[in-house]
Request: fold
Amino acid sequence: MHFNIHSAHVAAKWVAAPVGRCSQQQCSDKVAFLKDATGTLDVENEAGSATANELQNTILVARHVFISEVISTDDWLTRIA
Reply:
């Protein structure tokens, strides 16, 4: 995943963006996590290693299950329009 200064700014500003307008079926207590406005770096430590893509995918999957609704920036912008 390419991570640049612009996406870092967007992530810092909107990473916990309110889900916004949605139907009753879509709404929940979760917040929207913008999958294309976040990123990570390769990680290596005593426990092992993971590429940025592996780590990002794992984080998105776990967040979607436990914490937030993982959606694209375009989907989020459509909801709040």
